[in-house]
Amino acid sequence: MQADYTTLAKTIESLTEGETDEVALMATVVCELHHADERFDWTGFYRVTEPGLLKIGPYQGGHGCLVIPFERGVCGAAARTGAVQIVPDVEAFPGHIACSSSTRSEIVLPVFGRGGRLIGVLDIDSDRPDAFTDRDACDLAAILAATFGKL
Ligand code: SME
User: Fold this and answer.
1) What does the alpha-carbon distance between residue 19 and residue 79 come to, in Å, rounded to a whole number?
2) Mutate to test the pocket of ligand 1, among 123, 124, 127, 132 (most ligand atoms within 8 A of CB)
3) Separation between Cα atoms, residue 13 and residue 29, nearest integer Å
4) Which listed residue, 3, 20, 63, 69, has the most CB atoms within 10 A of its CB?
5) Average pLDDT of adjacent 10-residue blocks, the chain of 151 residues
6) For residue 140, what pLDDT is reported?
7) Nearest to 78 by CA among 101, 112, 105, 49
8) How far apart are the CA of 100 and the centre of ligand 1, in A?
9) Using an 8 Å Cβ cutoff, are 122 and 108 in contact?
10) Which among 79, 83, 85, 81 has a CA at the least distance from the CA of 67?
11) CA distance 149 to 151
């Protein structure tokens, strides 16, 4: 089963209507995303807790590393550049941080609030190689903008 992003967007919008707490929003988004797509083996947020530093937020899947500086990993690259990272082969990504030895591919999107404030990143890992597409990036970014863009 692969994500139906149109339905997901409507469901998340309905579940989070009127909510402005970042952690509550993250927990809801992660829960809905993770269970919507069999490619998603780890789904979670890392939050900007101080300049140049990410700390783990709500997630689904095995344990994730707690702290990621912007200089490290795929998450750090997304936070540092403000650009979506689609990694078809994590072993080919310099400095990839492996929280699970089964991860083969990854997508990480920056999460922006009002005025382009970087709130954190959304990280989705798959045990399948080359699991993510530009369509995933576009539709996930739209869900993130709709959910967090007003904060
Ligand atoms: N793979 C990420 C680290 C987070 S764990 O995968 C949950 C990275 O390289 O930044």
Assistant:
1) 24
2) 123
3) 10
4) 3
5) 95 98 98 98 98 98 97 98 98 96 98 98 98 98 97 95
6) 98
7) 112
8) 9
9) yes
10) 79
11) 6
Beta carbons within 8 Å of 86's beta carbon, 6+ residues apart:
107, 132, 133, 134, 136, 137
- The predicted-structure confidence for 103-113, as pLDDT tens digits, reads as follows 999 999 999 99
Q: How many residues belong to the chain? A: 151
**What are residue 56's DSSP bridge partners?**
46
Q: Kindly report whether the global pTM for this prediction surpasses the value 0.90.
A: yes
Ligand 1: residues with CB < 6 A are 42, 44, 64-65, 68, 73-76, 96-97, 99, 106, 123, 125
Residue nearest to atom 3 of ligand 1 (CA): 97
Contact at 8 Å (CB) between 28 and 63? no
